[in-house]
Amino acid sequence: MNYDVIIIGAGAAGLMCAIEAGKRGRKVLVIEHAEKPGKKILISGGGRCNFTNINVTSGNFISQNPHFCKSALARYTPQNFIELVEKYGIKYHEKKLGQLFCNSSSKEILDMLLAECSNNGVEIQLNCKVTNINKLENFIVNSTDGNFKCESLVIATGGISIPQMGATDFGYKIANQFGLNVTKTAPGLVPFILNENSFNGLPGISIEAIVHYNKKSFQENILFTHKGLSGPAILQISNYWSKGNEITIDLLPDADIISKIEVNKPIKTELVNLLAQIFPKRFAEKWCELYFPSKPINQLNETEIQNLNNILRNWKIIPNDTEGFGKAEVTKGGVDTGELSGKTMESKKIQGLYFIGEVVDVTGWLGGYNFQWAWSSGFAAGQYI
Ligand SMILES: Cc1cc2nc3c(=O)[nH]c(=O)nc-3n(C[C@H](O)[C@H](O)[C@H](O)COP(=O)(O)OP(=O)(O)OC[C@H]3O[C@@H](n4cnc5c(N)ncnc54)[C@H](O)[C@@H]3O)c2cc1C
After folding, report:
1. What is the pTM of this model?
2. Residues lining ligand 1, Cβ inside 6 A
């Protein structure tokens, strides 16, 4: 069968790209190896899909070339996607920090994309495995459902995080096959494993904090888990962290422990009880057990008070590792942006070969940024294929 365009991967980027190419009258086939499209869309945002962020800038993305994402993000903005969402009557809300979520379900976003595909004549082949790709004058795609020929081939197979959802390294292999460089991949937006299991008994406890690493900091919640630490502030910093390095956590972003001690001194409060006014009680108890034995606060001298303040504001930990690709929301690294046109996403070396979405070395923060990159890069390629 002959197509103008074949897109491999029916995820966020692939579907957006297919819609745009379909609108231009291109004959489009999307090949998906899973039994259904858009699985990550369905599980995203806790089932409510954080589909974009109204504060998107290139500063919210990590890439060897921080400028690469600018052109695509400028040509398809959060507002463009919001217009599409509103056209379909999907109700949404801002949860916090510009993050837009569906009121009801992620399925609404996937249904919208599939409706747009169908309205624009896009064919989607599910349960189809690509066995080989060759380029003669056109691309020849051999698959378990037969052989296809196309002028433009788009790789939209995403990263390798959550392999149990169908993620594969297919995109990187194709890049290698055609001589394109792939930067080192690593799990991103991923929980940390802590060396010592000292925080036993705290899983589920969440505390607002500022997490610092290498001049980056995020103020949001941290969450104790059975293996270590997670929560939005930890996931954000994990995008920047590399193994063996220390992170610093300020557990008092909005509280002043020194004046609190002064105010409570006359009533001879126990330190652990005072800390339990700021933190969950179990955390306060564990903290005193590990770092600062409790005593009545009127017995704390100035140096001890300063010391207490200092360790609460500069809690230093060296994570043992991350929980890896099995738990990572995204994959850092990918197809080297130096190999692609920022305007079209086309390979500079191989005419007609495009890479979009997470397979490219562009990784967003937590908060709707990764989907915005998928929509914007998919749109960009969709205008040219
Ligand atoms: C649990 C979780 C929650 C998330 N929540 C959010 C959120 O709320 N907001 C946000 O912005 N981001 C979120 N993300 C990140 C976001 O889902 C991804 O960045 C985004 O889906 C990337 O889009 P993509 O189209 O590049 O890849 P994907 O959406 O991963 O799509 C790739 C597609 O290619 C298919 N595929 C893979 N290999 C092959 C192959 N060999 N042949 C054929 N098909 C193949 C896959 O099955 C998949 O359908 C979340 C991620 C996870 C794991």
Report:
1. 0.96
2. 8-14, 31-34, 39-40, 43-45, 49-50, 130, 156-158, 161-162, 166-168, 170, 329-330, 357-359, 368-371, 374
